[in-house]
Predict the structure.
Amino acid sequence: MSVGRTEKSTMKTQRIAPVAWLVCACLVAAVAPSGAQTTPKKSTGATSPAPTLDPTSAARDRWLAEGDRLKQEGKYDAASEAYLKADKARPNDPAVLARRADLELRRGNPRDAITLYGRTLALQPGYYDFRIGLARALAADGRFEASIAEWEGILESHPVDYLALLGAAQT
């Protein structure tokens, strides 16, 4: 007995439908309003003083932008140098450490990435993007149980996050 073309299509749709529904549900939950206040706050009439310019922040921003540009061009060694200069301008800045970790993971150095993500998370515990980077780095290093534990922790705090669901499934 041969299976007809429409029957094959129906069988395939039945297999894909639950996955498609899950992805759609995750996307809707990510975009749907979470009940946050949508009315703007009223002005109290008080003005805040103008922010002071921090030269270390300006230097850090310049080096981060340079590192990002170089990374986009595939010049990883030069990007690493730029990120290190940003780190010297503002030591222990989570944004700098995270970019260095991302670059190390891209360069194929998951252990260095894990160390940098660890430092980043020590400065900003539980920060979502850093936790995802750590989970990916752990998997790249072959530490699958630790990676899965990290993905599960992310899913506990973000239960309908499609990136976390996908990451956990791929690990």
